[in-house]
Design goal:
- The protein is an all-alpha fold.
- The chain contains eleven helices and no strands.
- Helix 1 runs parallel beside helix 4, helix 2 crosses helix 4 and helix 7 runs antiparallel to helix 11.
- It is flat and about 70 Å long.
- The model has no long low-confidence stretch (mean pLDDT about 90).
Length: about 260
Amino acid sequence: MVVYAGQGDARRTLALLWRTSAPEGARTAPGPKPALTVDAIVDAAIAVADAATMDGLSMRAVGERFGRTAMSLYTYVPTKRELIDLMYDQAHAEMPADHDLSGGWRVGVESWANELRALYLRHPWLLQVSHARPVLGPHEQGVLESILRILKETGLEPTVVRSVVGSLFSLVRGAARSVVEAGSAAGTTGTSDAEWWALRGSLLRQIVPDFDRRFPLSTRLSAEEPQPSSAEGTPRWEREAREAFTGGVNILLDGVESRARRRAH
């Protein structure tokens, strides 16, 4: 399920994102129940999505967390479409605004990338919100500003920095998505990774006995897979995902470092 941001009323959504004005009609509700707030509704919606993914998100499910109906939320947040934008932006508030650059810009980028990956793993539903269109909220913008502040130290021209930032976001999101999908595969399919690979590996050798000869590079890559040294008990897919992510970031930053060095000289 892919969700596109910015599907609600643009003016109302941006006003809510930046909290420039109180929602029309928002006031203390009569009776023993306290009035709701936009922040409380957004936090509750994030909790719903964390527990049930975006597929289980509804105004009704959010309202139930307050013992209220979905209708009681509309005074504060017009529709689910605006709510998704608010959730997406608020989740990014967990990212640190600044990174220690005493060790250099490269250490800063690595820290930023690891923090963003961890954010996606805490809130997997964020990966269901397409990155094609930003929500243009303060916290999402803060994440971008943070990496731009770090990369400014490279001295690279803006056009190159734009490419680096795009590549970083794609790498981090892709790496996090691999972890989320691999982690849910066994529960969704009812078959563990070990069982899946054992069956298909055995059948592949029977059906394609010359596989090694036909695909020598793939075979070599598999044979030279590094063995875990200090990650005993860690699932293979989790270990491989972490190694691929770390390696990918390092290779990308090698290129950035080389480009920055050439520009400096």
